[in-house]
Structures are given as C-alpha cells and as structure tokens.
C-alpha cells in the first residue's frame, strides 16, 4: 500500500474532526456496500466499539482512523473495482482490529449482526 498523500491526510483529519459527519458518511456508505464486503460485521462491530462511551480513547482513535479510511472517497484502491476494490479497506480494518481486539466485545458484535440484518437484503 502506498503512503498517504497530503490531500488524503487532510481529508482524514477533516473527517475525524466532525464525528457526526463521519457517522452519517459511515452509515450511508455501509448501506450501499454492506452486501458486497465480507468484513461488514467486523466493520460495524468496530464502529460500535469506537462510539461506545466505555471504550478507551486510544482504542477509539485507532478504530475511528480505520472507519475514516473506509468512508474516504480517496482510496489506495478504488472501491469501484470489482473484488479488489475493498481490499485496502479490509487491510486497514484488520490492522486496527488486531491492535484493539480485546476491546471489541460480544455486545458490539451482536449489535453489528442485528444492524446488518436490518441493512442488508435477505440472502436466499
């Protein structure tokens, strides 16, 4: 993965400054792509952990960074490319989760499964 450009870094900083905007963009993008990404449950569980008042600040920062990368329109690999478009998002999320795995609880995961059941169409 290539290093972030100045524009990408500025976009990430701006996205994390406005938490409500980040939340809205997260849910908007998730609704569009939830059925196309195999890591949707991890992503939503990470979101719930990052927005949980009991989560330590360090963990929130790591997870919000990964979530911000997911919602950014600037991407190392375009999300429009079939199959590989979300590979970089998955890698960033996996790295973040590895760092904070103990903080993502079964409660966050259960809430994620419930949410995804409401967001994604039934699989037949």
From TrEMBL:
Q: Which InterPro entries match?
A: DUF1232, UCP031804
State the compartments where it is located: Endomembrane system
Question: Does this entry carry the keyword Heme?
Answer: no
Residues in coiled coil: none
One Pfam family matching this protein = DUF1232
Q: Which UniProt keywords apply?
A: Membrane, Transmembrane, Transmembrane helix
Q: Which organism is it from?
A: Microvirga vignae
Instruction: Give the protein name, as stated in the record.
Output: DUF1232 domain-containing protein
Cellular component annotations (GO), alphabetically ordered: endomembrane system
The answer to whether UniProt assigns keyword Membrane to this entry is yes
Say where the protein is mainly found.
membrane
Domain named DUF1232: which ranges?
Answer: 59-94
Could you tell me the membrane topology recorded for this protein? Multi-pass membrane protein
């Amino acid at each position: 993965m290539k290093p972030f450009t100045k524009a990408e870094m500025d976009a990430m900083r701006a996205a994390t400054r406005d938490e409500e905007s980040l939340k809205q963009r997260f849910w908007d993008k998730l609704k569009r792509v939830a059925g196309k990404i195999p890591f949707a449950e991890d992503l939503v569980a990470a979101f719930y952990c990052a927005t949980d008042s009991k989560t330590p600040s360090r963990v929130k920062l790591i997870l919000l960074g990964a979530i911000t990368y997911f919602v950014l329109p600037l991407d190392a690999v375009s999300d429009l490319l079939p199959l590989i478009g979300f590979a970089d998002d998955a890698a960033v999320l996996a790295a973040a989760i590895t760092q904070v795995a103990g903080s993502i609880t079964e409660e966050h995961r259960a809430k994620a499964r419930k949410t995804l059941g409401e967001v994604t169409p039934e699989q037949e």
